[in-house]
Amino acid sequence: MNKKVLLTGISGYIGNHCAVELLKNGYSVRGSVRNLSKTEQVINSIKKEVNPKDNLEFCELNLLSDEGWDEAVKGCDFVMHVASPFINIEPKDENEYIRPAVDGTMRALKAAKSAGIKRVVLTSSMVSMLGNADKSIKVDSQSWTNVKGKNVSAYAKSKTLAEQAAWDFINTQSDASKMELVVVNPGPVFGPSLSGDLSGASMSMFTQMIQGKMPMLPQASINMSDVRDIAKIHVLALENANANGKRFIVTTEEPYAFQEVAKILKSNGYDKVSTKLAPNFLLKIMSYLDREAKSMRSFVGKTYNGNVSLTMKTFDWKPVPLEKTVLDTAKSIESYIN
Fold first, then answer.
1. If 0-12 CB within 10 Å is exposed, 13-18 middle and 19+ buried, where does residue 333 land?
2. For residues 181 and 87, what is the distance between their CA atoms, to the nearest angstrom?
3. Distance CA 230, CA 184 (A)
4. Which of 94, 138, 168, 235 could potentially form a cystine with 305 if both were Cys, beta carbons 3.0 to 4.6 Å apart?
5. Chain-centre distance of CA 158, in angstroms?
6. Cα torsion at 261, 231, 249, 183 (round to 10°)?
7. CB–CB of 265/273 below 8 Å?
8. Domain map of the chain by residue range?
């Protein structure tokens, strides 16, 4: 009998790919959605990569409600908590994102603990490591964002506080049979979309680039993540004995500038892509007027580099090359907008 995984947030960009990777590796999946009306859309997305047969079922969960969590984990061997509040621009009230991120994570952990589940894999982010850096830095599994620092976005706060709450829960278990936790920390996520939803921050930016709607690019460099790599590490983390209690950065080995991405697109026939750089002062001025620009302000003029050596060694893993990620993302977007 296949081992069963409760996968929260299955309808999302990362969740779709995690479901595919789980099914390809012989797991059964119970995917959570906010509304069961989404199930047909999820099935159609997953079928583009794998036939789920009888190994996929659904349940309805809300990050802000206790209802259904204990039932959702029944009969499961693992929990993969991917669900988190969607954010594209800075909200007026940061608690719109912080509360569901933290409370949803705690609901997943408490339900898993009560059901006797041995291990939870949690999706966090590199922003929980570098969200308030005031200079170019290299981060690793020991790095943490200071949520009280300057220019920390609501998204960075939500991911940092949710992850910290998870580790606090795990580290204060008093019983002998301690539940295990593994955390995956991706950077900006790219790669093909299975659902056709292009509204996420990374996909939205990419779509604007290839349509020629982004006349200038921010002067910033950061490690980028392929959604297929993220899903692969989530699945490998379920049963790798050496992964317990660790945080894993899942990105390219080196940071890349937005301009480098634009040049890859330009050299492969995407003629509308601009390679011009926006002056730092202009983006900073715009950030006081535009909430979307504000979310990028802390990255301007800096290089953020994540150390992926622990991830590569633990899982014998090599990131998808940047050019493949960039071109596969562009092809995926084209297939939905044309």
1. buried
2. 25
3. 8
4. 138
5. 13
6. 150
7. yes
8. 4-333
- What six digits make up the tokens of 109? 């952990």
Which candidate, 135, 87, 128, 96, places its Cα nearest to that of 295? 87
Q: Is 294 a residue of the active site? A: no
303 beta partners: 221
pLDDT at 288 over 70: no
Classify burial at 317, counting beta carbons within 10 Å of its beta carbon; exposed 0-12, middle 13-18, buried 19 or more: middle
Q: Sorting pLDDT into bands at 50, 70 and 90, what band is 274?
A: very high
Q: How far is CA 336 from CA 192, 199, 227, 329, 330, in A?
A: 11, 12, 18, 11, 10
Q: What is the pLDDT of residues 110-156, one digit of tens each?
A: 999 999 999 999 999 999 998 666 667 889 999 999 999 887 888 88
The DSSP line for 20-32 is: HHHHHTT-EEEEE
pTM: 0.94
Give the Cα separation of 158 and 83 in Å (integer): 12
Please identify which of the residues 157, 159, 232, 302 carries the catalytic annotation: 159
Give the Cα separation of 21 and 80 in Å (integer): 12
Provide the CATH number for the domain formed by 4-333 in this structure. Answer: 3.40.50.720
Beta strands in the chain (DSSP E): 4-8, 28-33, 56-60, 78-81, 119-123, 137-139, 180-186, 189-190, 221-222, 225-226, 247-250, 256-257, 303-306
Burial code of 190-227, b = ≥16 C-beta within 10 A, e = fewer?
A: bbbbbbebbebbbbebbbebbeeebeebbbbbbbbbbb
